[in-house]
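Structure first, sequence second, as always.
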């Protein structure tokens, strides 16, 4: 399976770097391909280091203006013209999405994939890894949106929240094949 991972390019402490490394390693050990933002800094570097240590294949999707931060040693590097194109390429190249801790870029990526799922334009599984309670607030907000009728698709059909990377990958591996609703 080709797994898109959205996450930060900032250096963060063990609460967030540990799960990034563990996810990359687990994907590699289980024979999955890491598809990520192609950056060789912060948590993006850590997840790629983990995938490499686990023997996994890596597809980095970077953008021209970040070429100086690109991990050119990935098995494949795709250079997009802008962030919107990068996001589209990452999703196109992936069978599933895992969202790790991140900032506004990660939030933008996660929101877009959930919106695409809501409209039946992307049906592949999405899992948020809630490291150190990072996504507690987002999960609460999404559950409220679901309960109060703001989501036309039940939250459990849009995304799942996992407490750790093993739970996240297990959930992806046991997910039903994607079927687009038109």
């Amino acid at each position: 399976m080709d797994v898109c991972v959205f996450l930060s390019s900032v250096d963060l402490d063990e609460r967030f770097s540990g799960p990034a490394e563990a996810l990359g390693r687990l994907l590699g050990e289980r024979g999955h391909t890491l598809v990520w933002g192609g950056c060789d800094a912060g948590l993006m570097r850590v997840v790629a280091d983990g995938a490499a240590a686990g023997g996994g294949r890596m597809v980095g999707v970077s953008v021209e203006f970040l070429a100086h931060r690109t991990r050119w040693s990935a098995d494949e590097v795709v250079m997009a013209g802008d962030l919107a194109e990068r996001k589209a390429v990452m999703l196109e190249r992936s069978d599933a999405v895992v969202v790790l801790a991140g900032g506004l870029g990660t939030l933008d990526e996660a929101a877009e994939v959930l919106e695409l799922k809501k409209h039946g334009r992307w049906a592949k599984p999405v899992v948020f890894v809630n490291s150190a309670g990072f996504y507690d607030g987002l999960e609460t907000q999404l559950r409220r949106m679901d309960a109060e009728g703001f989501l036309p698709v039940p939250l459990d059909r849009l995304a799942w929240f996992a407490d750790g990377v093993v739970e996240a990958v297990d959930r992806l591996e046991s997910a039903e094949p994607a079927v687009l609703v038109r």
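Margin note: The chain has a mean pLDDT of 95.
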